[in-house]
Amino acid sequence: MEKTVYFDHAATTLNKPETVAKAVYDAILTCGNGGRGAYKEALLANQIITYGRITVANFFDVAKPNQVVFTSNATESLNISIKGLLHAGDHVITTVLEHNSVLRPFYSLGQQVERTILPCNEFGEINYDRIENSIKENTKMLVCTHGSNVLGTILDIEKLGKICKKHGLFFVLDASQTAGSIPISMKNMGIDVLCFTGHKGLYGPQGIGGLCVKEGIVIQPLKEGGTGVQSLLQTQPEQMPEHLEAGTLNTPGIAGLTEGINYVTSIGLEEIRKQETILWKQFYKGISSIPSVICYGNYENENRLPIVSFRVDGMDSGYFADRLWQEYQIACRSGMHCAPLVHKAMKTEDFGMVRFSFSHTNTMKEVDYAIYAIKTIVSKWEEGKN
Amino acid sequence: MKEKQIIITFSSTTDAMLFEMEAKKNNICGRLIPTPTTITAECGLSYKAPLSEKKQVLEVCSMLAFTNYNVYELEM
Fold first, then answer.
1. Which of A208, A252, A315 is nearest to A44 (CA)?
2. CB contact A190 to B (< 8 Å)
3. What pLDDT does B43 receive?
4. Which of B5, B7, B14, B31 to mutate to test the interface with A (most CBs of A within 10 A)?
5. Model ipTM over 0.95
6. Closest to A356 (Cα-Cα) out of A304, A303, A284
7. Residue A386 confidence (pLDDT)
8. Average pLDDT, integer, range A198-211
């Protein structure tokens, strides 16, 4: 194939709709700075931003658009949530499935905040009973991913929401891998803070994300700066969303995010998941029969993300991914995937994994081509060894 | 020529924008303006409408369940 055959949608979705690109382009050419004036260009920016908040609030079933805070990505949102809600002496529960956007903020809090990291089984599944057993007097928060970016495990967030409500814990959810393919309702699932990014399953541009905060929850701001209102205050304003937004917002990004959400809504999340499931199942079926391929995760369970992670016995994952690109123009991700504890749990720290992540925009022809490429490379590798 | 206007100030730009959207739906002949410094030097956006539309303006505030807004009458 001459053009890239793209299977790295968990990193970022590539085939963005034209409507998203147009919205970004139009905003760059026409918008002023929202909240800084009442003239046409500034108000246009404000309209885009407000409509963006309304769209996100409707999509995630958030009580009010004011509770939607825009950030640059889920990483920033998680930093705001974790560092803004925890205090010295608190205890927090998380899992080994987490991305560094959850783990590194914890590490930076050091000894001040105690943490329990729940293990997973050989398939990347969490034992939910262990969560309640880990709760102590000073436990303040459960923060976890909705879906593992390596193993594809989807966590039962309704169950987690109920546990948190029962014990009075903040429930902070990293929806980076699931927003846009799995329905999420903040109201019905007991989520206190939902962190999302715009450029994966929501098909928006990079550089935009956000957090949705349940009314009544007050988060200490991570950033202080200009808000366009209450300039005489020496602190960030108390009201949301300005409390957690400082500086100029990414208005073109918000415009694109809105169109991205409109796009996934128009297709329907159920249809998107149906397409994704057909594709990953076909791929898994094709490669799991190769003797030297070791797959990680539970592929008997259809309720998983469209991710297949594996390694070829004896072959470095980076070398394999590079051969896929150089010889077949296949784009995938190799290495640790910013999720070090997953690799520690799966004992793949020394070689990493190759990850294929699918989108409803991939085709069966592309999947079959990838299977053929993998079989061919492995076969040549085996011949070379012999 | 100056006329008596009703001015609503908001604590959040988002509230100001939501108000404007609802006001348009209710055919109120107002618009967003920079908050006059005679009211506050805190900047931000306010909504200005003819005083004759005060009742409709206050109805929109009630409909949106705003709790943090102020109402002024100014000649502008």
1. A252
2. no
3. 64
4. B14
5. no
6. A284
7. 52
8. 98
